[in-house]
Structures are given as C-alpha cells and as structure tokens.
Amino acid sequence: MRRISKLTRVAVGVASLALAATACGGTSSEAGSDGGESGGDAKGLAIAYDIGGKGDQSFNDAAYSGLEKAQKEFGYKTADIEPTEGETDADKVQRLTSLAKQGYNPIVGVGFAYGPAMEEVAKKYPKVSFGIVDSVVEGDNVASLVFAENEASYLAGVAAAKATKTNTVGFVGGVDVPLINKFEAGYKQGVEDTNPKVKVLSQYLTQTAEEGGFSSPDKGKAAAEAQLEKNADVVYQAAGLSGQGVIEAAATAKKWAIGVDSDQYKQEALAKYKDYILTSATKDIGDSVYALAKSVEDGKPLTGTQTFDLKVDGVGLADSNPEFAKIPGLTDAVAKAKEGIVDGSIKVKTE
Asked: Where is the ABC transporter substrate-binding protein PnrA-like domain (predicted)?
C-alpha cells in the first residue's frame, strides 16, 4: 500500500484536474426500496468487480487495495461484489441498486462495462456518490475515474526496447476495445521512439469481453507462446486475468514479461514467475477508489472526470525487480521519457 501522504496528494491532485463531463464480500442487510433516498448519509464503501473478479492479481485487486485502505482509515463497512458469468447490463443495474438500497456510499463500478448501468442507477439515487473506473458517465453524483494508460504503456515500451536482445517484442491485449487500444498505442510509440529497429508483435485475445478475453489465462498463454516462437523476448500484456497466462509463458521460456495495472512482481500468486516480470505499467486504481472515499468522508464528494496521469503519479512504471536497474540505460531512459511526458514535450498517442 502507498503511504497516506501519497494518497492524500493524489486525492488533492485529481480534484484539481476535475473537468466538466468530457475494467466478493459480505453485504449488510437490505434496507428496502426508499425512492432513491438511501445512502446519502451512510459511511460505507462498496465496489463491484469487473470480469475476472477478485484475485486477478491486476485490475480488480488494485481496486480492492483502495477499499482496504478506506476501511482501515475511516472504519467503513465495506462490500466487494463479484460479477457473474455472462451477466447483462440488467444484472449490473440490479447489483448497483441493491448496494444503494443497503446504504453504501460511495459505490464504485470497476470497469467500463458498468457505464450504462451506472448512468441509470445514479439518477435514481441522487444522494449516493458513485464512481466508475475506466469510463466517463454523466451525472451530478458520479465521479469518472479515468487513467492515462497510454502514458504508463509508453514507459513500458521504453523498457521493452531497452531490454530486448532480439529486437522483437510483443503486446497481448485482452479485448480489442478503445481502452486496450490505448495500452497498445502508448507501448508501440515508446518502443519506436526508443529504438526504431525493434519490431512489435500485437495480438488481441477476443473481440468482446464475453468471449473471455479478460478472464482466460489459457488464451493469454497461447498468444504469448506464439509471439515467443516468433523471436519476441519481451511481452507486455493488458489482459486482466488472462495476463497471468502471458506471464507464465514468458517465464517458462525464460523471457521477460511486463505486467499491468498492479505491480505484478509483488503479487503472491505470481511469485514463482516474478524473476521474469521485468516491470509493470501501473494504474493507481486503489488510489482513485481511496480518493473518492476520502472525498465523501470529507463531505466534498468528487464528481465529473477525474484524470489520473503521470503528473499526479496516477500511472507509472514499477521498478521492484532488481534486474530492472541492471539493464544498461533503462532507468535513465524511463526517467527521461517520464519527464518529457509530464512537461508536454512528448505527446503520447491514444490509438
């Protein structure tokens, strides 16, 4: 977990960046229907997970870390709710509505798939603060928690270009959607800007989330193995739970994997592969969840679009693996790239 000072700084930073509208735990007993009045004065945080659920060692687990921090600091009652296989928007509406009726405030939908459901439910519960990760939803009581994934991915590309010995690196995306396209775009640009001679192999696992692109480690493993067979020696994945298969494949081949969202070098479930996790392009989803909870606790709920980028350390590149610092020129190249992105001299593509 990050220090409180860091989290507070992020909360203040993102509040200053707010714009006009521009990815299973217990619950308390249901309070019943109340015409949208529940939750306004409650002190409780609930998060509803995206595909892959808790234990993905990545996206959803990062959100859970924010819930844990808020629970510890504010004494909140909390709930973290798993998705169901093949669920519809109506299922998400029911889930968010149930949490609002039970008095949770704020309520966070983890992932862009919650967009339509949150737009509907937030209107019915105007006294409840809602947050959605990775999507923009209009509403006076909704905070859209979005990230500059392309910036972190650019840094991952710099690292890959410095680490490769074959001049071939890979990218595996879970689902071919605009959000994951941002990861690919930043990564490719970072590689090219660092070493134009390096070739990037790209593959998406599925066209829709329902096909398992974010929840199928076997698909991730097969995609990575195919890239490794084509001489890639660094593979970056933005694939949720499927990314665990990418990491396994790279480690088995004794090649580098680059993790995503969380610092995957530190994830206990991936410990046997960690020597081959060079770095991770991180998104401080936990900080964003915490920032929303803190704003509600302070009586000034965040609303509108809250952008977490390199300027506020909302995204970044992990250096937990000691081997990271041993690769010639890597640390300096990443630092220089970060400086350029922050000062605006490097414009990172989103597609």
From this structure: 52-321
Please give the structure tokens belonging to residue 141: 């009581």
Looking up tokens 């509208």 gives: 21
**Pairwise CA distance, residues 259 & 269, whole Å:** 13
Q: Are 198 and 160 in contact (CB under 8 A)?
A: yes
Please state the domain extents for the chain.
4-147+285-312, 149-282+321-343
227: left (phi over 0), alpha (psi -120 to 50) or beta: alpha
Coil/strand/helix, residue 341 = helix
- The residues pairing with 145 across neighbouring beta strands, listed in sequence order, are 133, 306
Determine the average pLDDT of the residues in 181-187.
Answer: 98
Instruction: Copy the structure tokens of residue 151.
Output: 């910036």
pLDDT at 6: 34
Contact assessment for residue 289 and residue 46, using Cβ atoms and an 8 Å cutoff? no
Q: CA-to-CA distance for 134 and 147, rounded, in angstroms?
A: 7
CATH number of 4-147+285-312: 3.40.50.2300
**Angle, vertex CA 104, rays to CA 99 and CA 107, nearest 5:** 75
d(CA 69, CA 91): 28
User: What does the block give as tokens for 26?
Assistant: 């217990």
The secondary structure element, H or E, covering residue 244 is helix 243-252
Strands 315-317 and 199-206, by their bridges, are unpaired
Report CA-CA distances (Å) from 344 to 18, 54, 347. 19, 36, 6
Mean pLDDT of 237-251: 96
The Cα–Cα gap between 231 and 168 comes to 6
* pTM for the structure as a whole: 0.83
Mean pLDDT to the nearest integer, 219-227: 98
Q: What is the pLDDT of residue 51?
A: 79
